[in-house]
Design a protein that fits this description.
By secondary structure, the chain is α/β, with parallel strands linked by helices. It is built from 6 helices and 7 strands; from the N terminus they run ααβαβαββαβαββ. The protein has a 7-stranded mixed beta sheet with strand order 3-2-1-4-5-7-6, sandwiched between helices. Strand 6 and strand 7 form a beta hairpin. 39% of the residues are buried. The model has no long low-confidence stretch (mean pLDDT 93).
């Protein structure tokens, strides 16, 4: 068995699937007619075909991004970090453990901690049990710990982690102030000299601004690929030494 990191945006995938099936079904019914050039049927057929095609492509992109694309981006980001093996790592909004487990594979005596509120609307089958099952399948369960918690109020002491990661999670926090609070919480629990990387498809300009306000160093945002037909950026920063 292989680890299963779920489908992102399951509600959207379900909606696109329904739209695809209904549109193509109606299109197939209408092609049995021989309408005049200016009839409603003549107009409806290409519209339905277009909707069906767009919906099919959207489902394919969501599935590919969830199963292949985000793993490739994850591996590039994880590989860019100079691991020692003894780090304490935090994955904020860990979901089913994609980033968490990727980091744990680079640890020897270190620990990777994942925190989430486990919303199934954001990721299919999202739960602590699914995350630990993936950790077991990937052979890193002994180096992984799961905690319940909100990114806006992380249940950890100041300067607790050497590396902090987050993937496709912070944009789900409602409101600019809520996302800003999450960024300041991440900065709070990161140790001086520690590194953070936030991967997301939305709001990355907000993360850059908030990290600069939190007086983080070397704050930069770089495009690392496309997911769900949208550009994906990685925002990286370092906490200054005291």
């Amino acid at each position: 068995m292989k680890a299963d990191y779920g489908i992102d945006g399951p509600g959207l995938v379900r909606g696109y699937t329904i739209a695809c099936v209904v549109s193509f079904a109606l299109w197939m019914i209408l092609i049995a007619f021989e309408p005049g050039a200016d009839s409603l049927v003549a107009v409806a057929r290409p519209v339905l075909f277009g909707i069906g095609t767009w919906s099919f492509v959207s489902v394919a992109l969501f599935v590919w991004s969830s199963k292949v694309g985000k793993l490739r981006i994850r591996d590039r980001i994880i590989s860019s970090i100079p691991w020692r093996g003894d780090e304490k790592v935090l994955d904020v909004g860990c979901g089913r453990g994609m980033m968490l487990i990727g980091a744990a594979k680079h640890l020897t005596t270190g620990k990777a901690v994942g925190v989430d509120i486990w919303r199934k609307v954001d990721q299919a089958g999202n739960s602590p049990e699914a995350t630990m099952r993936n950790a077991e399948l990937e052979g890193v369960a002994g180096r992984v710990e799961i905690r319940n918690g909100d990114a806006r109020q992380l249940p950890f002491a100041d300067s607790s982690f050497d590396v902090i990661l987050s993937s496709l999670a912070l944009h789900n926090i409602p409101g600019t102030d809520g996302r800003r609070k999450a960024i300041f919480e991440i900065a709070r629990v990161l140790r001086p000299g520690g590194k953070l990387v936030i991967l997301d498809i939305f709001r990355t300009h907000e993360y850059v601004k908030s990290l600069q306000e939190a007086e983080m160093l070397n704050v930069k945002s770089s495009r690392v690929g496309f997911l769900f037909y949208m550009p994906c950026h990685a925002v990286a920063a370092t906490k200054p030494l005291e």
